[in-house]
Structure formats: C-alpha cells, structure tokens
Amino acid sequence: MILRVAADGCTDVAGVIGDPVAHSLSPLLHNAAYEAAGLNWTYVAFHVRHGLASQAVDAMRSLGIRGLSVTMPHKEAVVDAADIATPSVRALGAANCLKLDSEGRVVAHNTDGDGFVNSYERHGDSIVGKSIAVIGAGGAARSVIEACGRAGAKSVMVINRSRDRADRAAALAGDVGCVVEPASAGMADIIVNATPVGMEASPGMPLDPALLSSTQTAIDLIYHPLETPWLHACARRGLNTENGLMMLLHQAAIQFTLWTGADAPIDAMSAAYAEKAG
Ligand code: NAP
Fold this sequence. Notes:
Helices cover about 35% and strands about 20% of the residues. About 45% of the residues are buried. The protein has two domains: about 10-110 and about 245-275, Leucine Dehydrogenase, chain A, domain 1 (Rossmann fold, 3-Layer(aba) Sandwich); about 115-245, NAD(P)-binding Rossmann-like Domain (Rossmann fold). The two termini are about 15 Å apart. By secondary structure, the protein is an alpha/beta fold. A six-stranded mixed sheet has the order 2-1-3-5-6-4, sandwiched between helices. A six-stranded parallel sheet has the order 9-8-7-10-11-12, sandwiched between helices. NADP nicotinamide-adenine-dinucleotide phosphate binds near residues 141 and 160.
C-alpha cells in the first residue's frame, strides 16, 4: 500500500469532467502514475453537469488546472470552448483531453485513437500495412478509424448497423476507409469491436465468430467484462485476442505525457487497475 503525500501549495491539479463521473477509473490511473513518477500532482473527478462544459474550460484558465480528461456528455462541447484543437479533434468533432499550455491557452486533444494504436504497437507490431475491420461507428469507433488511417493502415473497413453513420465514420480514414458487409471481416488482419455489444446491458455478439479464422487478431474495446462472449469465442477459434484495457491505459498514458512531459509509468497504472479489479 502506497501512502500519498498530501497536496501542498505547489501541487499541480488535473482531473476529469463528466456527468456522471463517479464511476470514472481515471483518478485511479492518473494518481497511481503521479505516485510512481514522484510528481507533486493530483487528479480529481469534477461532476460537471450537462451544458456547463464551457464554464469548466474557463475554470481551467482561472484556476490553472493543468489538464482535464473529458467524458460524456462534454466531448463535443469542449471543442468549441477550447482555444486550439488538434487536426484529429477537428476531424472527429470531439475531444477527450484538454491541456492548459504555457501561455494559458486550452488545447483540445483526442487520445482514444492513438491510445488504440499505441496499445496495438506496444510489443513491436505495427499498424502500417494492416487491414482493420471496425465494428461500430460511434465515438470510440471513429477515434480508432481516424487514428488507424493516420497511422498507415492499408485499409480500414467499417461495419455498422446504420449505413449513414458508417459512411461518415469510414471517411475519417481518408482514402483507405470503406464501408463493408460483416462477411468482409474475414479479410482483415485485425477486427475491432467498438460497439457496446457484449456488455451486461447489451448482450450478444457484435459479429459472427464463424466468419473469422486463427490468422486474425480480435480486439474488443470493452473492458468490463474483461472477456466478452465474442472475445471468448474468437479465442476458441484460435485468434489472438485482446480486451479494451490496454487502450484505456494507453490513452491515459498519452494524457499523462501531454500534461507532465514525462514518460507514463504504464506498469504502475496497470497494477493500480488490477488491484482495484481484484
Ligand atoms: P457510441 O458512441 O454509443 O457508439 C456505439 C456504436 O455501437 C454505434 O455505432 C452503434 O450503432 C453500435 N451499436 C450499439 N448497440 C448496437 C447493437 N445492439 N447492435 C449493433 N450495433 C450496435 O459508443 P462508444 O462511446 O463509441 O463506445 C462503444 C464501446 O467502446 C463501449 O463498449 C465502450 O465501453 C467502449 N470504449 C472503450 C474504450 C477503451 O479505452 N477501451 C474507450 C471508449 C469506448 P449505430 O450507429 O447504428 O447506432
């Protein structure tokens, strides 16, 4: 058990805004990282109600809050409230991270997609030249599609029940993006479930595992449960499988580095999650 040093007059403050926010794992991950890195920083959850995102961004400027993670329902509203948005944020129309820069400007970032790419590449594999099939066209899917296009994927195939959202999501990958039918997932190197299907509240399979084979990798962005029925079925068919925990850790790690300038202690963040999950 690590004892945290109490905040003092020099403590840098970061946090997460959302509504609701009490369930967020971000305070656990970021505080574990500050502790491991020996930084005099602290990270708190701010319950910011729907419609109050721009006031929260003003508070960053006035209170000198160094960084904010952003969760539902504020991911779109903070883009307009920030002073600068990265090209990815402008393309996605959504941000999950705000940084107060040295000139007092609030910069909007989106770390979800790069978190996905970094987590995939952490053992030396590369997205470059890979075919990726993404199931879903919501916020998580869009981040992954945009980042994979930017990271040099050969193709990014989008599978989604609503065709119009699929078309808009596929365009985020540029020339390598396209909309396909589920059967085409058999041609991908990596298949990503970016729908909530497989969580307790949304039972079922996002894609028939019989369409897939053992040369492929299946990644489920869900991390609660750690193994969805779909991921389990894919593993039984011999696919390499991974849940969403590594993407969660790596998107948080990017935020940590953006704010502090230090390398993120991913092992400490992972250990904190494991201790909490039991
Ligand atoms: P979202 O914006 O609500 O999008 C959900 C997508 O799933 C939509 O494209 C929707 O299709 C599709 N979908 C929903 N229910 C479906 C069903 N029953 N059958 C078929 N398609 C269905 O959600 P999100 O924020 O992108 O989150 C998606 C998942 O990613 C969640 O499970 C979330 O926990 C996970 N996630 C993980 C991480 C991580 O770091 N690991 C980060 C973010 C999100 P339509 O377009 O047709 O409505």
